[in-house]
Amino acid sequence: MGFNRRKTRQIYIGNVPVGGDAPVSIQSMTSCKTSDIKAVVKEIQRLRDAGCDIVRVGVPDSESAEAISIIKKKVSIPIVADIHFDYRLALLSIKSGADGLRINPGNLKNKEHVREVVKACKEKRIPIRIGVNSGSIDRKRFTDSSPEALVESAMEHIRLLEEEDFFDIKVSLKSSDVPTMVKAYRLFAPLNDYPLHLGVTEAGTYNQAIIKSAAGIGCLLLEGIGDTIRISITGDPVKEVEAAKILLRTLNLRKEGVEIISCPTCARKEFDVEKIAKKLEGRTQNIKTYIKVAVMGCVVNGPGEAMDADVGIAVGKSGAVLFKKGKIVENVPKERILRVLLQNIEDFR
Questions:
Q1: What pLDDT, on a 0 to 100 scale, did the predictor assign at position 1?
Q2: What are 207-219's pLDDT values in tens digits?
Q3: How would you write the chain as a 3-class SS string?
Q4: How confident is the model at residue 78 (pLDDT cuts 50, 70, 90)?
Q5: Sign of the C-alpha dihedral, residues 221, 224, 226, 228?
Q6: Whole-angstrom Cα distance, residue 199 to residue 221?
Q7: Residues with Cβ < 8 Å from 86, sequence gap 6 or more?
Q8: What is the pLDDT of residues 314-331, one digit of tens each?
Q9: pTM for this one?
Q10: How confident is the model over 106-116, as pLDDT tens digits?
Q11: Strands 197-198 and 228-229
């Protein structure tokens, strides 16, 4: 299925394009203190290896801002500094080499401070993400966290930057409530051409987070809305990247990694489908090439229902058959299923 993406201007975060005709990029955020340089570098390297394109670090103090300069020398993906309220931390992060800022200019209160930050960003060609969420809107003006309040809050922040002739902007309008988040992005999308960062904030632990994110982010991406995403999960941020890759692959937006098609199992199954599928998933998680692999528990489901798989296995009472693009190529003893699948996957790399 094809769908038209919203036309947006393109900005660059480091060497990663966001918006325009660029692929939807994957973001995450480090979970350790930014001042703990060794821990942050290790975590960023894990995120990069998992497929993260852009990483955000929290900057609660000057020590964290200054650490960015050292971290930058040790990692290869762009770093976005997350700033709240203190413009001096934004300036220090820019000086330290941050590739982008996440800051709401309205929170800086003083227009002169906004001008200083914008001037520094212009000089270094650093974009700013306006990150609005349910907890950041002005409660003096908005009594609730409605989609309309999120949009108006974002527009106020945007106007502050546009008044300073600054347009290297991307925007997020996050909520922990999926319908609110979806409606906010839908309302915002036709108002301008700034690229959008999608996410469901405070989505919870793994099981809940991936369902909420798939519903909210996936819904918008299918409508052509969204240029970069973060799946927020309480826990290891590498899981965020893995989930984001699967979501984008599922929507045919980025074809990377091994996609495993496996039947849900029923009384017809002739072997332990779940066991083989999970082992296969674990052994192939670092493969970057897109390969579709089928694991079918009976001849009813395979190869017919998985004929578009690059390679697959289907098991009957007399044993297993290996098939490629729906055509049976050889018989395989049950005890060799995993080994044969892995060998054939290697042939596609």
A1: 47
A2: 999 999 999 999 9
A3: CCCCCCCCCCEEECCEEECCCCCCEEEEECCCCCCCHHHHHHHHHHHHHHCCCEEEEECCCHHHHHHHHHHHHHCCCCEEEECCCCHHHHHHHHHCCCCEEECCHHHHCCHHHHHHHHHHHHHHCCCEEEEEECCCCCCCCCCCCCHHHHHHHHHHHHHHHHCCCCCCEEEEEECCCHHHHHHHHHHHHHHCCCCEEECCCCCCCHHHHHHHHHHHHHHHHHCCCCCEECCCCCCCHHHHHHHHHHHHHHCCCCCCCEEEEECCCCCCCCCCHHHHHHHHHHHHCCCCCCEEEEEECCCCCCCHHHCCCCEEEEEECCEEEEEECCEEEEEECHHHHHHHHHHHHHHHC
A4: very high
A5: positive
A6: 11
A7: none
A8: 888 878 889 988 888 899
A9: 0.91
A10: 677 788 998 99
A11: parallel
For 200, counting Cβ atoms within 10 Å of its Cβ (0-12 exposed, 13-18 middle, 19+ buried), the class is buried
Q: 59-96: buried (b, 16+ CB within 10 Å) or exposed (e) per residue?
A: beeeebbbbbeebbeebebbbbbbbbebbebbbbbbeb
CA triple 241-244-250, angle to 5 deg: 145
Phi first, then psi: give them for residue 137, nearest 5 degrees. Answer: -75, 155
Type of residue numbered 63: E
Q: Cα separation of 19 and 122, whole Å? A: 19
Domains within the chain, CATH numbers bracketed:
11-250 (3.20.20.20), 258-348 (3.30.413.10)
Q: How many CB atoms lie within 10 A of CB 37?
A: 18
In angstroms, the CA 228 to CA 339 distance is 37
Which residues face 18 on adjacent strands? 11
**Both tokens of residue 177?**
């409530």
Cα–Cα distance measured from residue 88 to residue 86, given in angstroms and rounded to the nearest whole number: 5
Q: Which residue shows structure tokens 């296995």?
A: 313
Quick check: 155 and 132 in contact, CB under 8 A? no
**Strand-strand pairing, 128-133 and 100-102:** parallel
